[in-house]
Amino acid sequence: MKIGFIGLGNMGNPMAANLAKAGHDVSGFDMADVTVPGVTMVGSGPEAATSADIVVTMLPNGQILRAVASEIISAMTPGAVWIDCSTVDVDSARAVAEQAKEADVLAVDAPVSGGIGGAAAGTLTFMAGGSDAAFEKASPLFDIMGQKAVHCGESGAGQAAKICNNMILGVTMIATCEAFALADKLGLDRQKMFDVVSTSSGYSWTMNAYCPAPGVGPASPADNDYQPGFAAELMLKDLRLSQQAAESSDADTPMGQIATALYEQFVESEGGLGKDFSAMLPRFEKRNRS
Ligand code: NAD
User: Fold this and answer.
1) 77 DSSP assignment
2) How far is the CA of 153 from the centre of ligand 1 (A)?
3) Which of these, 48, 163, 178, 225, has the minimum number of CB atoms within 10 Å of its CB?
4) What is the DSSP letter of 110?
């Protein structure tokens, strides 16, 4: 297939490389001067989109997505598929899908989980929103770039699933970290805390698979001086998107709201920028009840 790939950063670069490695003819464009193994770089987004069977975008945010959409949709062939893998607000995802529909382009919003490691290994999970026809045509590419793709519903449903999942993740990480900090103050050994909680009703992915306490549980960023992993500022981005969606849909999300405020404080004024999101534990460790 002829594929156009726009946005070749940390995630897009290895994803595009995997498509080329699988034998597809991939044309790439990024604002920055980048190269990708097996991908032919071109001079603009529309150039990458023209005559492509499928266009993939992997961009930083909804504003940039809207700008790129207004350039590429008119360049695309009617009936072609556009997969947007960026994490953006639900409103932007729905707006660009509407624009695509008017031009007879089959749009799928398909944000991912799995991070840079998953992108390189081709083991991402895709959460997709769009018509059955669009999802079906996008599926062969999901199979190359990832190991699982869930068709969540109509346009915007992929983004909705992603931000709901990550709101749970942010809230749960905070709960796990504050519980470890409380356990410390109570003189409870961290390994014992893990042994109990990981097999009791307080268990979670953040405790069992990504334990924020160094030397406890399976290997995680905590064991590597909290190098990301999943950076705190990316967690903050997703939490903000969850609150933007809660605002626009009038949903009550008090825990999501508190988690957003805590990560905001952590990233903007407590040295969390560039650290893994599990570095909330040393943050709590240093504090007293105020
Ligand atoms: P990144 O900043 O490394 O890459 C984004 C790329 O888009 C950059 O190379 C930038 O130059 C390019 N770009 C910006 N504007 C452009 C334009 N108008 N035209 C063409 N290219 C343009 O970011 P990333 O880490 O690759 O993340 C991409 C998306 O994936 C984000 O929405 C992010 O939230 C999401 N995501 C990231 C991770 C992760 O672990 N990094 C995990 C899951 C989801």
Assistant:
1) P
2) 24
3) 225
4) -
Q: pLDDT digits over 158-192, tens only?
A: 999 999 999 999 999 999 999 999 999 999 999 99
Report helix, strand and coil shares of the chain as percent, to nearest 5: 50, 15, 35
Q: For 106-125, write each residue's pLDDT tens digit.
A: 999 999 999 888 999 999 99
Give the strand pairing for 112-113 and 124-129.
antiparallel
Radius of gyration from C-alpha coordinates of the chain = 20
Rounded to 5 degrees, what are φ and ψ at 216? -120, 135
116 lines ligand 1 (CB under 6 A): yes
Task: Tell me how far apart the alpha carbons of residues 83 and 128 are, in angstroms, rounded to a whole number.
Answer: 9
Pick the atom of ligand 1 nearest to 230's CA. 40
Max Cα–Cα distance, the chain, nearest Å: 65
CB 60 near ligand 1, within 6 Å: yes
* Residue 81 and residue 128 in contact, taking contact as beta carbons nearer than 8 Å: no
| Distance in angstroms (rounded) separating the CA atoms of residues 151 and 137 | 12
Strands 81-84 and 146-153: unpaired
Which residues does residue 108 pair with via DSSP β-bridges, in sequence order? 83
Residue 83, SS3 per DSSP: strand
List pLDDT tens digits, range 57-66. Answer: 999 999 999 9
| Placement of tokens 């709101």 in the chain | 167
Ligand 1 contacts CB of residue 115 (under 6 A): yes
Which pLDDT score, from 0 to 100, does residue 290 have?
78
114: left (phi over 0), alpha (psi -120 to 50) or beta: left
Residue 57 belongs to what H/E stretch?
strand 54-57
